[in-house]
Design brief:
Blueprint lengths: L16 H8 L4 H26 L9 E5 L5 E3 H15 L4 E6 L6 E2 L9 E9 L10 E9 L19 E9 L3 E6 L5 E6 L4 E6 L10 E3 L10 H9 L8 E2 L5 H11 L2 E4 L10 E2 H14 L3 E3 L16 E2 L1 E4 L1 H12 L3
Parallel strand pairs: 3-5, 11-12, 11-13
Antiparallel strand pairs: 1-2, 3-4, 5-6, 6-7, 7-8, 8-9, 9-10, 13-17, 14-16, 15-17
Length: about 350
Amino acid sequence: MLSIPPARPQFEEGTTLDRFLLETLRDHPEATGHFVTMINQVTLAAKLVSARVNRAGLAGMFGATGSMNIQGEYVQKMDVYANETFKRALEHAGVVCMIVSEEEEDIIPIPAPFIPGHYVFAMDPLDGSSNIDTNASIGTIFAVFRRQSTRGQGEPRDVLRCGRDMIAAGYIVYGAGTVLVLSTGQGVHAFTLDPSVGEFFLSHHDIRLKPETRSYSCNEAYSGTWDERLQTWLASTKDPAAGWSARYIGSLVGDFHRNLVKGGVFLYPPSKKSPSGKLRLLYEAFPLAFLAEQAGGAATDGHGPILDRTLASLHERTPLYIGNRATVTEITRLLSTTT
Ligand code: AHG
Ligand code: MN
Ligand code: MN
């Protein structure tokens, strides 16, 4: 008698990122070559930054450069290295028409003689830079749009877009291991770098945010100046019967990654210190909101979905509530009620 072999999973752990992209994007041949090239350049930069992060204490990469960025924050040596590395990796490949970076005030055009491509690449080259010297998780966050203009250098309208226009988003977390988390709108998948062979392999297929986990991440020291309704919600998590726990690294990418894998919610509300919120819409909130929704979660600014926002200026800030759908919805409902 013939026995029926068990169904093969569509993707096995250990599938390379390259193969995964080629197979999942098979139905979009017009985009595949350019998109895969762009992601390959992202992984090249990620490997370079990862290697430097691992050796930071030996390579003289701890500490600040002494200058401030346009957002009034001290620039760390690793911020500069990551920014330059991602720019260099992307600018010559003919796949992006512009880059926007947290570290640079203006749109970064593609310098001649390189050829501008189809995509807009927005990035926080090094997120969590206050944690570089502490060996805690840090990362690179990126959002990808398809350009609207048809030729030449990109224009502001290519990036001043609605969050729903994003075609892909992801981040690389440089933690105990280096992990690339990516979505092209078909679920969220994670690829772990095997440094011995220099390749990213699929390690988490179709990640779903666990709805039942009661874990929150926020800088609670600022909560005295938050909206009182949020303070009341936060106080309710202290009821031992409610079963909450708290985790905060102070590196958005590290906190988000933990919550994505284990379940949880991350909050960065407006405070007296940051009345519009601290996090940036384009290259922090947009890409992580894309990933959260793709993983079955939600992301809001306290009023409505982050992805429904349209970017008004490159470095615009936003409050952010992101993670498990039920908790994000509950907090948003609280903040939206008129008193
Ligand atoms: P960056 O290092 O890119 O400037 O981002 C820092 C952000 C983010 O990673 C983190 O969630 C937040 O700052 C932490 O802020 P607090 O120190 O105010 O908690
Ligand atoms: Mn950041
Ligand atoms: Mn940064």
